[in-house]
From TrEMBL:
The lineage of its organism: Bacteria, Bacillati, Actinomycetota, Actinomycetes, Bifidobacteriales. The keyword RNA-binding does not apply. Residues 115-130, 145-154 have a biased composition (Basic and acidic residues). Residues 155-177 have a biased composition (Low complexity). Residues 54-81 form a coiled coil. The chain crosses the membrane at residues 21-41. Residues 106-183 are annotated as: Disordered. This is Septum formation initiator. The keyword Mitochondrion does not apply. It comes from Bifidobacterium oedipodis. It holds the Pfam family DivIC. Keywords: Coiled coil, Membrane, Transmembrane, Transmembrane helix. It comes from the Bacteria.
Amino acid sequence: MSKQSRKSKSGKTRTKRNNSAGPIAFFVSLFIVALGTIQLVSTFHTYALNLAELNGLKREEASLIAKKQDLENDIKRWDDKAYVTAQARERLGFVFPGEQAVRVLHPEAVTGDETDSKQSDDSDDSDHKVLPWYSELSYALQQADEPKDEKDDQSTQTSQSDQSDTKTNQQSDQTDTGEATQQ
């Protein structure tokens, strides 16, 4: 066999092998590229998460530093005798010897501002002893178990009819004077 015949035989076999190895090499290289892309995306995702966490921690650190500064300023204020005196007067109601303490029970009488009726109702309730919730519940259950007297029923019905009469009178007065509002 001559060299040329060997080359032709080996050349044919090489071309066949290259043709059959081409799709396999393409899919292997495609798999490697896909794997690299997935790894790269995963790395960038982890980087973005860590960067967001770092920024959050920096914001938290800045707020804690500001809070610390405010607390240190509060501590420094207590070194001032005038501040301590003002706080003792305001919070504890202290007075200097020879001064007379005056406490205003109804500040709206002094300032002229009217407060909500809700606050005045609260002041009326403050005269009564407040019971714990379980005592209130027990009291309510005992009251529910007791039979009502006929007198109580009649007085309740009378007061309810009086209230409805009052409401209708007020409504008619409002319509007469034009104070009624549309709802």
